[in-house]
Design goal:
This protein is mainly beta and about 240 residues long. The chain contains one helix and 19 strands.
C-alpha cells in the first residue's frame, strides 16, 4: 500500500514538473525580442516634404522568407514623414496602389517600382515622388476674426499623366490635425472657378470654440481630379 502511495505521489510530481516545463517552453517561444531598428524618412519632391492627410497615405514593407509573410503597413504623417520599428534584414518596399496626390517611382517597364531595402541598423531614407501639383508661396494669417490665405499652384506633371484641379480649400481647426475630415470651418474654390493659378485667395470666419482658445490651426489643400488624396501646405498655428 505504501509503495502504491509513493508511486502515485511520484506520478503526481512528474505531472506537475511536465506542466511547468511545457509552460516555460511556451513562454520562451512567445518571448521574442521586440524590433529595435528604426526606419524613417520623408516623401519628398526635390528635397521638399509632401504634406498629406494623416493616415490616408501609406506604403508596405515585405520581408520574404518568414512563415508569416504579411505586409507591414507604414503610414505617412501630415508632414510627409514616416517611421517604423523593424528587425534587421532584407525588405521589399512596395508602393500601395492609388496612394497619394502624386506618382510613385516607376521602373524601366513603366510599372510602379519596388525598392529593395537592406537594414543593418537604423536607417533614414527619403523617397522621391512626383506630385501632380505643388502649392507655392502659401501664406496663412489670422486677423479680425478671420483666417486669410493665399497661394500659387505649380503644375508639375504635364505629360499624358497630367490631371486637372478639382478644388482648392482652406481648412481651419482647433487642433493640429487639419484636413477635409478634421475642420471647424472651410472655404472651397472649384477648379472651374480658378482663373489664375498664380493668384488664389481664400478667407474663413473663425468659429466659436468651446472651451475658448486664442489660436487655431489652418492649411490649404488641393484636390486633384480623379485622385482621392489631397496635397497640403504645412499646418500653420495662428494666434489671434
Amino acid at each position: 500500500m505504501l509503495t502504491r502511495y509513493i508511486d502515485m505521489k511520484t506520478r503526481y510530481f512528474l505531472a506537475i514538473a511536465l506542466m511547468v516545463a511545457v509552460f516555460v517552453s511556451s513562454c520562451k517561444k512567445d518571448n521574442y525580442d521586440a524590433p529595435e531598428v528604426d526606419f524613417n524618412g520623408r516623401l519628398v519632391y526635390k528635397g521638399e516634404s509632401i504634406n498629406v492627410q494623416y493616415g490616408n497615405v501609406n506604403f508596405e514593407l515585405w520581408q520574404p522568407g518568414f512563415g508569416n509573410n504579411g505586409a507591414i503597413n507604414v503610414n505617412v504623417n501630415q508632414e510627409g514623414g514616416f517611421s517604423a520599428k523593424l528587425f534587421n534584414g532584407n525588405y521589399k518596399l512596395v508602393f500601395s496602389a492609388n496612394q497619394g496626390p502624386f506618382l510613385w517611382p516607376k521602373n524601366v517597364a513603366g510599372r510602379q517600382d519596388t525598392i529593395q531595402l537592406n537594414l543593418n541598423g537604423s536607417k533614414t531614407m527619403d523617397i522621391e515622388i512626383v506630385p501632380y501639383y505643388m502649392i507655392r508661396n502659401g501664406v496663412i494669417t489670422a486677423a479680425a476674426g478671420k483666417v486669410n490665405a493665399s497661394c500659387k499652384l505649380e503644375k508639375i506633371i504635364t505629360d499624358a499623366n497630367a490631371k486637372n484641379i478639382e478644388s482648392v480649400s482652406l481648412y481651419v481647426n482647433k487642433t493640429q490635425f487639419v484636413d477635409g475630415s478634421n475642420n471647424l470651418a472651410t472655404q472651397t474654390i472649384s477648379g472651374a472657378a480658378i482663373a489664375d493659378l498664380n493668384n488664389l485667395n481664400m478667407v474663413v470666419n473663425i468659429p466659436s470654440i468651446v472651451p475658448t482658445q486664442n489660436y487655431v490651426f489652418a492649411r490649404i489643400g488641393v484636390k486633384i481630379a480623379g485622385v482621392e488624396d489631397l496635397i497640403f501646405t504645412p499646418v500653420s498655428k495662428l494666434t489671434y
